Amino acid sequence: MTEMSSPASGDGSQRLDRIERAIEHLVSVPANFEARLDRLLGAQEAQQQQLGSLQQDHQQLLKAQVVLDDTVERLAEEQRRLAEAQRHSDERLNTLIKGVDDLDRGRPPGA
Predict the structure, then answer these.
(1) How many CB atoms lie within 10 A of CB 83?
(2) SS3 helix, strand, coil % of the chain, rounded to 5?
């Protein structure tokens, strides 16, 4: 057996240092992996919460779209009714104008 302090054991000391560094590295790898895994799990959890929030927002948008569609349909129907009423008013106004014009020119109304 050789003594560790002899000059011939210099290589042995370096070898032991390399082995210690390798063991330290092997011990640190799982710790680093666990820290990275914890960060990934945290990010996944945050994304799940964001996804839940987006799904709620999407449901609210769908409801708002249905309400908006109903409102637009009612407005379109009201616009059709107003256009029809305007057409009738125009016809009556034209009849009145013609009658007044006939009276002003001395013709009997409706002639």
Answers:
(1) 9
(2) 90, 0, 10
Q: Within a domain: residue 111?
A: no
Residue 9 tokens, joined? 């054991």
Q: What does the alpha-carbon distance between residue 111 and residue 108 come to, in Å, rounded to a whole number?
A: 6
Does 4 map to a domain?
A: no
Q: What is the number of structural domains in the chain?
A: 1
pTM over 0.70: no
Residue pair 109/103 in contact by the 8 Å Cβ criterion: yes
Give domain status of residue 2, yes or no: no
Task: Give residue 13's domain range.
Answer: 9-104
pLDDT tens readout for residues 7-34: 445 677 899 999 999 888 888 888 788 8
* DSSP letter assigned to residue 109: T
Assigned domain for 110 exists: no
